[in-house]
Specification:
The protein is α+β, with helices and mostly antiparallel strands. It is about 25% helix and about 25% strand. The chain is built from 13 helices and 27 strands. The strands form 6 sheets. A 7-stranded antiparallel sheet has the order 21-22-23-24-27-25-26. It has a 6-stranded antiparallel sheet with strand order 1-11-10-7-3-4. It has a 5-stranded antiparallel sheet with strand order 5-6-2-8-9, with no helix packed on it. Helix 5 links the parallel strand 18 and strand 19. The longest helix has 25 residues, at about 490-515.
């Protein structure tokens, strides 16, 4: 679409009750990002109340009409997805504005390929809009969904604001409070706990009010003063007609209550009442009786679907990305459906009722290392198409890659009804449960306990729901071929190893993100729009040449990208991070401060000084540098230091699985150990400086 154009959604697809809008961008460094927001406007073009403003800490509408689904990694950046149930949008909402904003002096001109896409309920992309000319803008309205009679239409807007979120919000009747002294810090001490549910992450200011959870809010800085994002709380509050009409001095606007108090569970184990260690706590979902793969599949499906139905936040989170509306959810297992001469029995069925309409998904489950069967999935796709169901969801320990589906199915183009085929990894299910009960919170203690029991079940060694666990049959031949230098470029076994390496890294990100409560995403440095298969083939050829598997992880709140390299020749894993040199001060002060920050880091941590020109600087271990930090500095005093590289090495497992000696376990342990012992001691990223003449009020 071009700027200013519009289209009726029903002209593009019949399945536009639910739609998914994606806002995407790339970054040359892989680190650029923005925050998405949604505003519901009435016929006057204003928000009805503060509840009509949705952002990172107010991501879900109570009626299910809006849900911010979070970020997914792309080749060189991120895509933020938003689920809209257009059938649930209140009748007095005339327009839905979709926007994004940057912070700390950043503008959209620093990002590449800024774009919007819209997909229907079956996941089929209906339109794309590339935003142009927003170089100096700190906030952009990408587009808007609006009513025309009984129809919903989409307009490509592409309007930028150089005053950030503050300027954008003001245009739609939202007041931004820029008074730093007015930030409320009193309230229930339990609103902030050690699990991060109330701690301010990078780019968030924490505001607490009585009987409310901690509410991170966007931050606005005065013109020309970028400052840390935590410095000023920009709290949207609705303009009230009675305020405008009141005589005399205007009254201060009440702070918005954008989130209800949430329940999270502490990681700290309570003192047990057991007499000795042999006593086992009773569990809602026991696993001791599981003897066969069929038992595991049946139990896992029933456990998951029952919790989805009973914990609305969890069920909605797993199904919204598949186009499901918000509504009453019921789940079923072992349902028999006719299919020719032999009826089929999918492992489960999910049904959601909204305004008298039903959304239905069939569920096919696999546990342990069992692979999905193409004929089974094809049969369920055919059944769903004939019966008017909306989706088929597959669940297994495998991780689906972009451009590489786990099963190939035939889609009959002649059928008017479209069926979405989507995959979930058990690792992703566990990640979503952990994010809710450890960090984001759920509605009540009973829901938190149910999710805790589900998480315990999934993580039990006998459940069969452990996520990606096997590097595949090509792992040993490829390692041997690299060792004896007989592996040739173009060998399909090398490509299989590269694909499984990518699956492993995605799973490591899920585990780390769930533990930290922060976004952890793999970085893929390739040209946007490049064929994923071609990219993996190039990586496979490179593996044949240098014998190394390499990946990068971008973790929210860290000062750099975490890199991991597996050298199959030497059997060593290297985890590292490059941190930039401070902009002010003296090199010796930098060296001393870094050593102090790393006081509790492992003594065998390697520290390399990065200098101009890419030539290697001094290298040593932390143990040797502690008594003499000056050894980090180049002998040539004129050499400019650009940063420092911190690295840990460990032996990697040789077997292809997750046993104690397995490669997968060694990679997972290496990443978690490096973050726990090194990265957590480093400073958070410094706020970006605003170029002269480009200062703007930011939100």
């Amino acid at each position: 679409m071009s700027k200013g154009s519009n289209v009726t959604l029903t002209a593009l697809s019949e399945n536009v009750g639910p739609v998914i809008v994606g806002l995407g961008w790339g970054s040359p460094t892989g680190e650029g990002d923005a925050d998405v927001s949604v505003l519901l406007l009435d016929a006057n073009g204003k928000v009805r109340s503060d509840a009509d403003f949705y952002f990172y800490n107010h991501p879900v509408a109570a009626d299910g009409s809006v849900q911010l689904l979070g970020k997914t990694p792309t080749a060189d950046g991120n895509e933020d997805r938003i689920s809209f149930d257009l059938t649930a949008v209140p009748a007095d909402v005339d327009r839905v504005v979709v926007a994004a904003s940057r912070y700390d002096g950043a503008c959209f001109g620093e990002l590449d390929d800024v774009r919007l896409s819209l997909a229907d309920g079956a996941g089929e992309e209906l339109l794309r809009f590339a935003v142009q000319g927003a170089d100096s803008m700190s906030a952009i309205i990408f587009g808007e969904l609006y009513r025309r009679g009984q129809e919903w239409k989409f307009r490509a807007v592409g309007q930028g604001y150089d005053t950030g979120l503050a300027g954008l919000a003001t245009d739609f009747g939202v007041d931004i409070d820029d008074d730093a002294e007015a930030v409320a810090v009193q309230g229930d001490a339990e609103a902030v706990d050690a699990e991060g549910g109330g701690a301010a992450s990078e780019g968030r200011a924490v505001v607490r009010e009585p009987a409310l959870a901690s509410v991170p809010v966007p931050v606005a800085a005065p013109v020309g003063e970028p400052g840390p994002r935590e410095a000023v709380a920009a709290l949207p509050a609705p303009r009230r007609p009675e305020d405008d009409a009141a005589d005399g001095p205007s009254r201060p606007t009440a702070r918005p209550r954008t989130a209800k108090k949430k329940v999270t569970l502490s990681r700290a184990a309570r003192k047990t009442l057991a007499e000795n260690e042999s006593w086992r706590a009773a569990r809602l979902f026991p696993v001791s009786a599981l003897k066969s793969d069929r038992d595991r599949e049946t139990r896992a499906t029933s456990v998951l679907l029952s919790v989805m139905a009973q914990v609305p936040e969890f069920g909605r989170r797993l199904t919204a990305a598949f186009g499901a509306p918000a509504g009453r959810m019921e789940t079923f297992t072992e349902v028999t459906l006719p299919h020719g001469d032999s009826p089929r029995r999918p492992d489960g069925v999910i049904r959601v009722e909204r305004a008298g309409k039903l959304w239905t998904a069939l569920v096919e489950t696999k546990t342990n290392g069992n692979a999905l069967k193409a004929d089974q999935v094809q049969a369920y796709m055919d059944i769903a198409a004939r019966r008017g169901y909306e989706a088929v969801i597959t669940l297994s320990n495998d991780v689906e890659l972009e451009g590489s589906p786990l099963v190939d199915v035939r889609i009959d183009k002649r059928r008017k009804h479209k069926v979405a085929l989507r995959h979930l990894s058990w690792a992703e299910v566990a990640h979503q449960a952990q994010m809710l009960i450890r960090h984001e919170g759920v509605g009540n203690a009973a829901h938190a306990w149910l999710l805790q029991e589900l998480l315990h079940y999934l993580q039990h060694e006998n459940s069969g729901c452990h996520g990606f666990q096997n590097m595949g049959p090509a792992w040993v031949p490829v390692r041997n071929g690299i060792d004896d230098e007989t592996l040739c470029q173009g060998d399909p076994r090398a490509l299989e190893v590269v694909e499984n390496w990518e699956r492993l890294i995605r799973q490591v990100c899920l585990a780390l993100g769930g533990e930290l409560g922060q976004k952890a995403l793999p970085v893929q440095r390739s040209k946007r729009g490049a064929d994923p298969g071609a990219r993996r083939s190039a990586l496979a050829d490179q593996l044949c040449v240098d014998g190394r598997l390499q990946a990068e992880l971008r973790i929210e709140g860290t000062p750099g990208v975490l890199a991991i390299s597996a050298d199959l020749r030497t059997g060593k894993l290297r985890t590292s991070i490059d941190i930039p040199a401070p902009e002010q001060g003296y090199p010796l002060s930098w060296a001393k401060r870094l050593v102090r920050r790393l006081a509790e880091a492992p003594a065998d941590l390697h520290v390399e000084t990065l200098v101009d020109g890419g030539t290697g600087g001094p290298r040593s271990t932390l143990e040797r540098l502690r008594p003499e930090p000056a050894d980090m500095l180049p002998k040539d005093g004129d050499t400019r230091i650009t940063g420092f590289r911190l690295s840990l090495f460990k032996s990697m497992g040789s077997t292809r699985g997750t046993a104690q000696s397995g490669f997968i376990r060694s990679v997972d342990e290496a990443v978690h150990r490096f973050h726990r012992t090194v990265v957590v001691h480093l400073d958070s990223p410094a706020p970006r400086r605003v170029p002269s003449g480009q200062g703007a009020a930011r939100g």
